[in-house]
Amino acid sequence: MACANAPWSEENFSCSICLDVFSSPVSTPCGHNFCRTCITKYWDEQVKYKCPVCNELFNTRPDLRVNILFSEMVDRFGTSVRVKEQPCVEPAEVPCDVCTGTQLKAVKSCLVCFISYCRTHLEPHQRVTVLKKHRLVEPMDRLEDRMCKIHDRLLELFCQTEQVCVCQYCTETDHKSHPVVPLKEEYEVKTAQLGKIESEVQQMIQERKNNIQEIKDTVKRSKADADREIADGVQVLTALMRCIEKCQDDLNQMVKERLKSTEKQAEDLIKELEQEIEDLTNRSSEVKQLSHTKDHLHFLQAFRSLKDPPPTRDWTTVEVRPPSYVGTLRRSLDQLEETLNMEMKKLCGAAELKRVQQYEVDVTLDPDTAHPNLILSQDGRQVHHVDVVKELSENSKRFTYHVYVLTRLSFSSGRFYFEVQVKDKTSWRLGVARESIKRIGKIIVTPETGYWTLYFDKDRLVFRDNPAVRLPLRADLQKVGVFVDYDEGLVSFYDVAARVHIFSATGCTFSEPVYPFLSPCLHEGGRNSAPLIISPVNQTD
Questions:
Q1: pLDDT digits over 110-125, tens only?
Q2: This model's pTM is above 0.70
Q3: What is the 3-state secondary structure (H, E, C) of 448-479?
Q4: Gap between the Cα atoms of 90 and 94, Å rounded
Q5: What is the DSSP letter of 515?
Q6: Which residue of 172, 285, 449, 526 has the fewest CB atoms within a 10 Å radius of its CB?
Q7: CB within 8 A of 81, min separation 6: which ones?
């Protein structure tokens, strides 16, 4: 007798036709078992009825019988095998609502039962005739949310008027006059819109990433600027401290020299006095010695030599005056202040110019704005005045009275810097101007009218304002740098060769684009014929 606990393999429960675990197993008269569907289909295709295993022939199509015990064993084995083969539910997956204990992954959801089934528990829906009529869909979570709260029917339609999901009964009541479409149709429409939304969202994300990068770059630049400012500050302050130390050394040296001179004078006088004392002491000794002589002849002969005293200075008019130090420290500090001011202008101007030169822009002159008496070079970087008036077409951008010209490029934010060579010129004007400036007829050039300019004329240098700001005239001014911080409202001018700051206009109002502005002024019979030249920046100057 076989052991009751003998293991049974899948081969013992496999149909010899489909080679799978029996499904609805039946037995033939010869005692072999097959799936009902497999043996039925097999005999439908045969002329004679025989057993696929032992080839026993049957005169008539045999009646298939169910071996109840074997069928139950197959069910148990099949269930065991299917459970082992099915995966357990993972997070974000739909679980089987029927499973107890370990929940398996659902393979279908029934929209009639409102239950999700794993492969094992779905089997009745594939076998029972009534259940086969149920609508099965891909696994769905929270099926109760797919029911209409009013009519307890499946939400299968979409109301385009109120943009809500509705059931069939809703279209006959509250949404009767509203256009409705199947969920799938609206899903496709919304999916298409989703692509656009996703594109917009991605664009917004990218913009914000760009903003983050810009902020990081700004912080990075700020740190670099801060480090550079500290380094420049250390350099300037170190130089100033050297000036102070030199001032102190000079003061000490001057006081010591005065003291030394007084000490030398006193020393010389003391030596002279000591010499006279020595001479007088010797005379006193001679006098005393002679006073003790009793020889009348010798006394009279010796007395004659005492008649002329040794030469001495009239010391009543001689004095040693101590040196006066009144005002010495003040004069030294005045000199130090002057030196420090000059040194600060030089050092700070050089450091500042180096920073603003980093904002160099490449600009060229716009011939459409140039006065007819101005000649521009082919590369648009030079301009000078001539007497010959060119025949030019009318242009609202052109200056008609003053010999002015603007650049092609304008600026409406940020910072920019350019340099103009003014060498060998007796007069010139340059700076920046806003776009809406007056260009026809006589023009008053001030910040109020949209011009921020520096003007040079032989022996004077001014910033044109109302009133004009007279500036110290620097000898041999050859190249002028112009820096604009649009957002801060700042226009600054620099002597590039001397590397010093000339003047800054602050609190400027820029509400529109501004253009670099040049005027070579009249040529004055050839005395001022040299051109203004927009020059490349050389930070090693």
A1: 877 888 888 888 888 8
A2: no
A3: HHCEEEEEEECCEEEECCCCCEEECCCCCCCE
A4: 8
A5: E
A6: 526
A7: 10, 21
